[in-house]
Amino acid sequence: YTETSGGYNLPTGVTDLSKEVHSLHMLIFWICVAIGTVVFGLMIYSIINHRRSKGHKPADFHESTTVEILWTAAPFLILIGMAIPAAGTLIKMEDTRNADMTVKITGYQWKWEYEYIGEDVKFFSTLAAESNAARQHDGNGLLSGAAWAKTFSKDELEKLKKVDGGNYLVNVDNELVLPVGKKVRFLVTSNDVIHAWWVPEIAVKKDAIPGYVNETWAKINTPGVYRGVCAELCGRDHGFMPIVVRALPEAEYQAWLAKQKGGEAAAAAPAAAAPVEVAAAATTATDAAPAAAPVEVAAAPAAAAPAAPAAAKDLSKDELMKKGEQVYTANCSACHQPTGKGLPPNFPSLVGSKIVKGAAVDHIKQTLNGKGMMPPFKHLSDLDVAAVVTYQRNSWGNSSGVVQPAAVAAAR
Amino acid sequence: MADHATPNPDRYFVPAPSAWPFALTVALVAILGGVSSYLEDKHIGPLPIYAGGALLVYILFRWFRGVALESEGGFYGAQVDRTYRWSMAWFIFSEVMFFGAFFGALYYARHLSLPWLGGEGSKIETNLQLWPGFENAWPTNGPAKLNGDFDTIPAFDVPFVNTLLLLTSGVTLTFAHHALKAGKRTQTILWMWATVALGCAFLFLQAEEYMHAYGDLNLKLASGIYGSTFFMLTGFHGMHVTLGTIMLLVITLRLMSGHFKPDSHFGFEGVAWYWHFVDVVWIGLFIVVYWL
Amino acid sequence: MAHHDHAHDDHAHDHDHEHHGPEKGIMRWIKTTNHKDLGTLYLFFAFTMFFIGGLMSLVIRAELFHPGLQFVDPEFFNQMTTMHALVMIFGGVMPAWVGLANWMVPMMIGCSDLALPRINNWGFWILPFAFTMLLGTLFMEGGSPAGGWTMYPPLVLQTGNAFPFLIFAVHLMGISSITGAINVAVTILNMRAPGMSLLKMPLFVWTWLITAYLLIAVMPVLAGAVTMLLTDKYFLTSFFTAAGGGDPVMFQHIFWFFGHPEVYILILPAFGIVSTIIPTFARKALFGYDSMVYAVASIAFLSFIVWAHHMFTVGMPLAGELFFMFATMLIAVPTGVKVFNWVATMWKGSMTFESPMLFALAFVFLFTIGGFSGLMLAITPVDFQYHDTYFVVAHFHYVLVPGAVFAILAGVYYWIPKWTGRMYSEKWGKIHFWLSAIFINITFFPQHFAGLAGMQRRVPDYAVQFVDWNVWSTIGAFGFFLAQFIFIINMLACCYGWFGRKQGLPDRVWEGAHGLEWTVPSPAPYHTFEEPPVVSDNELTAAHDSVDALDHHKLS
Ligand code: HEA
Ligand code: HEA
Ligand code: CUA
Ligand SMILES: [Cu+2]
């Protein structure tokens, strides 16, 4: 994903290997074009000249062992010519030895988790809030005039083009930050179904298989922001789990990493419950990448602002509901839907459900630990969990009372 | 009506329009629809399954009876005979490929996925990150020890007896064939009954073995990849033995009512081919499922 | 003959074995054992499925016209892609090929009917039931399957109530394909007229023989794979679960062991049709008959050892990736031989461009383009970039739509005069051709660019930079779909004699055509060759070195 629109070819990318892959791609493309030109050229010549309307009489040859051998052997040799460089590149791509650092990538329906092995840094990365809001389906069917009008509307398109600074659907809340010039080994796995972690500009695409760990690597040459997507069908929101890699010069990367660890430490302290991820996003956006698209800055603080004073005191129902709605939209609505009705049978309805009507502690526990297809949400702060549980218990006709962060802390 | 059904073996027999195939499909779909609903807990009741099953049995009986009578009636010339030979051969080939899928799964699990889970080859991190401490072994119910500890059935016990039973049944069947070719009908029938009996004995022992596995050994379908491959392979084989035994029985009954001639008895041979195929699959099973 | 009378009870009571004609009304179609009736049923069924699958593709394309979610929920979108593919492949192309084989194989090799007529009836009638079952899931709780036509676990195990119906529908389709394939294979092996030796058979018959072999070999493997899905979901087996020692990727291996030969099942009969049509309209014998046969056989052989090229990103060991890359690349060699032979057949011919020829020529151009992109996909390190993008979607639609579907259209145009005794409208045929050829390229060519630029498959919504490609693609799709109405009206007019179309065509409808089917009246009688015909050299595709045969191929 180049930041500019209108691309039509593979990006050359920013690693040595991505460049090799690109030239391999071009090489094979031109070989095909050349063969195509010859074959189609002869065919077109024949179609033009050997037609009956021109009075052409059919010849009577129908066999020639010589040419048959020739046009079996020639393609074969051409293929060998392609296979040799291809094998060379492939061997390099599969060599994950001697890495400088390792990041473990875990796919979830529908987000990514990044863990910096040995660094004690770990966070989730989901579709950015603005894109997430813009991509909601407004429930029109195929026969709806409104939907057709929307489809043909230039304004709608222009609106989308502005979302997330031109990165509609390819922007995230927390970016994967990597140093340039280091061999980074990726361990790719999944928690539920198969996903695939793909960033075109570093020519890495690896399937995330539940129960198995795949390895791959990249050594990024140029600092910058590189976007990618989940490339293996993983269910309803497969199209909405993008990837953003931010490559920083070594020193800036180290600074970023130190902040992360600081964030972690702060989170562990009882008084300050500021969630790591929020901190991460905020730092990334403000410190490390001043020139980045403004939306990222906008999105993160919105979530971060009310977080700080929260944990100390009990909150009012309104505060919790307001916060809860944000958390719900970001984390729950993909499955349980903005209406709370879910998409049965896989995604159960929350309207009047057993869990929502039942004891608060069970509700909190299920949120923290997940169940069946539902992933755990342990990584959310006590406040976020309290807010979202409160929100679920008091929306769409439910009324099951307020839950405070302290109750969440107790249930952990 | 007799006048227009003169058999003409020189001309390829093209049967009259028939409603059996359509009805067979209806029966099949009723069963599958019923089973689907059952699996998804949609309570439409077992009626479609029973009704479909009954219909299926009835149709197969009528259809095959008709074919047998056409054959006995001399409608099938040499070319039709060759058709049945080819068809049976291709059908058995397709069965081989069906079993191939499950044998392939067993091979994959033992030689690829389990070593990987145990950290071999390029998948060392799989073991370190996700399944620390798991060691590749066979039999296994996987790193999560699904369904708890279990014991396996030793090869040189009942399974070996079963091997002998099936091998013997192949021999008795061949004796029956030779007797048929020699025109010794009584002998043929006796050898056939022996074959049927051996098939039944095999099935009996296999059923015992399953009960033993479920009841005493805690070896179940749910016992990880070992249980999965064990029961699916032996189970599908058992289903084929059941079918084969029924087919042998039908042939025996047909022999008793005077069907087949020493020089023309493809119905007999087709079933014999099928039985040998089931036999060979068992040898494969015995070696890779029980023994190795 | 003590049992003779029972034979009457069961089968033979109401008809004459020698000359029974069709029954009346709907029962004719339900009970028919006639290869032409069944061929017709297959073709109408396939057409219906093409239509339904085409409508689904329009839902897909409408949603993708612009970014943003306008029409459908993402879950429903996934159901559409999944069902579109299943319906097109198993309901459209495969039954169309069986339908053409039903009609043409007995007429081309000179026999009275397929070898197993009742089984033939069964094989057909399974299909409408299977697809009712499959399409019925659209109305179930949780909707129809949405895990892609490849049905990868664990995702597919999240399917709702539709799940067992999906599995059993696939089983039924498998039974249908296997019975159909056995029937065709046995007919070809056992029922050729005297003089029609294997290496003299028309190429359509040859390609179908090999297709039948592939079908019998791989459909059971698919059945096995989906059976394991079923037991994994309901009976707690763990074939595809790491916790129990299985592997989700194992499914992919088994699936593609079926899936790759499957794509050649879809294309080999197309090769046969093109090899039949080009010589007819070039008025010149097929170049390199023997090498054509060997090429098809090599493709079939290779198709069994390349399956993992669909799985380069799953994390196979390096040796596996290298092996599957090399093996896949090899397929370009025999396929190239075929393309070169077609060109050599045209070379110095005396070509005319009736509708079947136009579609056959477009096939050669556009299939080759699809083949080139296939070759690019075979290059493992680059496939890491292409995989699961619209580049792949473009590849396989090029080989499937202007490949397989165009060949079906060519075949129908070519033989419909023989089937109905009426000529289609050449003018509308040409209009249909040009609209189809133009729109299909507008639909699928831009998808190459979208894919290279980074648009992944199976998404209902996409980043804004891909909008231009998608706008074109959607316009093309609607245009192509609409153009097919010209075709169906043109064909139905032949069937029912609309627009005053009269029967009365010569036996040899196309002057350059050779083959036994052109020695019988048009329309072909209900029973064609009850007595084996005499095969003259003039009717053989394989001109070999008989000078006489060659003279007949020349236009006097
Ligand atoms: C009719 C169907 C059909 C046919 C014929 C083919 C033909 C080929 N296919 Fe394709 N393929 C599909 C249907 C088909 N494919 C489908 C449906 C998928 C996607 C499935 C899914 O994921 O849903 C797919 C996906 C697919 C992939 C996986 C891509 C991915 O998911 O990452 C690959 C990779 O190797 C591939 C390769 C090839 C090759 C090498 C050929 C070769 O057979 C092509 C050979 C032809 C030529 C090369 C052109 C003519 C030759 C010459 C003129 C000679 C000289 C040429 C050279 C020396 C270059 N195909
Ligand atoms: C044979 C197979 C086949 C055919 C014909 C088509 C036809 C079309 N396909 Fe499809 N498609 C697939 C097989 C096929 N496709 C597969 C396997 C997938 C992958 C699914 C997955 O990801 O799981 C796919 C996915 C797919 C996608 C990607 C979806 C996604 O990834 O999100 C798109 C998007 O544009 C698309 C579009 C179209 C369009 C516009 C057509 C149009 O060409 C449709 C118009 C066609 C017709 C209307 C039929 C015309 C035919 C006749 C008229 C013949 C007459 C016949 C007789 C007389 C017997 N298809
Ligand atoms: Cu995750 Cu697609
Ligand atoms: Cu393939």
From TrEMBL, chain B:
SUPFAM superfamilies: Cytochrome c oxidase subunit III-like. Its EC number is 7.1.1.9. It is a multi-pass membrane protein. GO terms for cellular component: plasma membrane. The chain crosses the membrane at residues 12-35, 47-65, 86-109, 158-176, 188-205, 225-251, 272-291. Keywords: Membrane, Translocase, Transmembrane, Transmembrane helix. This is cytochrome-c oxidase. InterPro entries: Cyt_c/ubiquinol_Oxase_su3, Cyt_c_oxase_su3_dom, Cyt_c_oxidase-like_su3, Cyt_c_oxidase_su3-like_sf, Cyt_c_oxidase_su3_a-hlx. It is found in: Cell membrane; Membrane. One of its GO terms (molecular function) is cytochrome-c oxidase activity. One of its GO terms (biological process) is aerobic electron transport chain. Belongs to the cytochrome c oxidase subunit 3 family. Coiled coil: none annotated. It comes from the Bacteria. The lineage of its organism: Bacteria, Pseudomonadati, Pseudomonadota, Gammaproteobacteria, Nevskiales. Residues 8-292 form the Heme-copper oxidase subunit III family profile domain.
TrEMBL record, chain C:
Residues 1-22 are annotated as: Disordered. Pathway: Energy metabolism; oxidative phosphorylation. It comes from the Bacteria. Belongs to the heme-copper respiratory oxidase family. One of its GO terms (cellular component) is respiratory chain complex IV. PANTHER family: CYTOCHROME C OXIDASE SUBUNIT 1. It catalyses: 4 Fe(II)-[cytochrome c] + O2 + 8 H(+)(in) = 4 Fe(III)-[cytochrome c] + 2 H2O + 4 H(+)(out). SUPFAM superfamilies: Cytochrome c oxidase subunit I-like (SSF81442). This is cytochrome-c oxidase. Residues 23-536 form the Cytochrome oxidase subunit I profile domain. One of its GO terms (biological process) is aerobic respiration. Its EC number is 7.1.1.9. InterPro entries: Cyt_c_oxase-like_su1_dom, Cyt_c_oxase-like_su1_sf, Cyt_C_Oxase_1, Cyt_c_Oxase_su1_BS, Cyt_c_oxase_su1_dom. It is an enzyme of class 7 (translocase). The chain crosses the membrane at residues 41-62, 82-101, 122-142, 162-191, 203-230, 263-281, 293-310, 322-344, 356-379, 391-416, 428-449, 469-499. GO terms for molecular function: cytochrome-c oxidase activity; heme binding; metal ion binding. It is found in: Membrane. It holds the Pfam family COX1. Its main location: membrane. Keywords: Copper, Electron transport, Heme, Iron, Membrane, Metal-binding, Respiratory chain, Translocase, Transmembrane, Transmembrane helix, Transport. Signal peptide: none annotated.
